[in-house]
């Protein structure tokens, strides 16, 4: 009897020690907020490009022949050149006046966001997802934000304080100790994770994804990076869907992803999941195919699962599987009106 009790006590204390070790590991690698020493990269976000103004030729100092009366100089009004990231394309997406909220669409002189909601069946399971189709003329309209350490702020709070038109969860970097992190032109961390693909948005509006083991930080920094995310994986290879990914979480899950068409044209996608009869989420291979079918040429997986959500006009529109309001201390990617540098 004494030997049996001794064995039970030994097993009990072993379980307690193992549990404590696992909790300690989870704290340092997942739950403990990180602290950073930000470094501004190169120049500030570029100014919004202005329309050209009416120009009149400067007077000439060349003397005129005698008895010659010069003809009147006509006004010269130049046709405005295409401006902004989109180079004048998609003009119908924007307004000439005040911003307009029209149901699932927002339009202004600089930003257009169109939200669509979809219900499909994938591999005999229901899937519900949201797509934010985004057109911006200035790169400063695509920004990120994250809470201060230990603040407990959630994504909806961050979206509201930034005047976000639409926002999604980001890559949850404040709770990870490795991975390159650039936010709004500021470098917070440059510790590469050997198992991670990364995604970089440059100031000229181009977006590129890089496979693990093929990342050259010097090349990236020389390219004037504006945002960099380290979660992954990459979802498209040369614009084509993929079947193999650098991830250990490829099974069905709620998902969040960012897609790129051309400078100034992007999309944010959130897939609901873990909800029987409504939406069971997507496998990584199916998410890759979805981004391809949307027409993206680059696409990148962000933090999904219990983190993923989409906010539009100060309201969470995706159906959360976790807690009703999203995780604490989750960073966000959001779209807002461009920064007015004249007021800075």
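Q: What amino acid sequence fits the structure above?
A:
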């Amino acid at each position: 009897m004494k030997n049996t009790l001794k064995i039970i006590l030994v097993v009990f204390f072993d379980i307690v020690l193992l549990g404590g070790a696992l909790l300690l590991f989870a704290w340092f690698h997942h739950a403990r907020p990180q602290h950073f020493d930000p470094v501004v990269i190169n120049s500030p976000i570029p100014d919004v490009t202005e329309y050209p103004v009416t120009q009149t030729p400067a007077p000439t100092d060349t003397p005129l022949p005698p008895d010659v009366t010069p003809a009147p100089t006509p006004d010269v009004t130049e046709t405005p050149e295409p401006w902004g990231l989109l180079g004048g394309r998609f003009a119908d997406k924007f307004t000439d006046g005040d911003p307009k909220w029209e149901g699932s669409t927002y339009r202004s002189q600089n930003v257009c966001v169109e939200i669509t909601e979809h219900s499909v069946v994938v591999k005999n399971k229901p899937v519900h997802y949201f797509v934010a189709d985004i057109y911006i003329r200035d790169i400063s309209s695509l920004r990120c934000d994250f809470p201060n350490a230990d603040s407990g702020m959630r994504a909806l709070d961050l979206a509201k304080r930034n005047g976000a038109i639409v926002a999604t969860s980001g890559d949850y970097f404040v709770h990870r100790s490795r991975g390159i992190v650039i936010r709004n032109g500021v470098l917070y961390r440059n510790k590469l994770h050997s198992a991670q693909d990364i995604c970089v948005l440059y100031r000229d509006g181009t977006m590129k994804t890089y496979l693990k083991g093929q990342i050259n930080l010097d090349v990236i920094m020389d390219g004037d990076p504006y945002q960099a995310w380290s979660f992954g994986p990459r979802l498209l290879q040369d614009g084509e869907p993929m079947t193999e990914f650098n991830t250990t979480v490829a099974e069905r899950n709620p998902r969040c992803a960012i897609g790129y068409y051309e400078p100034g044209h992007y999309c944010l996608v959130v897939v609901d999941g873990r909800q029987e009869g409504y939406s069971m989420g997507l496998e990584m291979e199916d998410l890759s195919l979805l981004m391809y079918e949307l027409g993206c040429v680059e696409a990148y997986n962000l933090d999904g699962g219990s983190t993923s959500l989409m906010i539009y006009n100060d309201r969470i529109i995706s159906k959360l599987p976790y807690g009703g309001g999203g995780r604490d201390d989750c960073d966000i990617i959001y779209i807002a009106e461009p920064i007015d540098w004249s007021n800075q």
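Q: And what stands out in the fold?
A: The chain has four helices and 20 strands.
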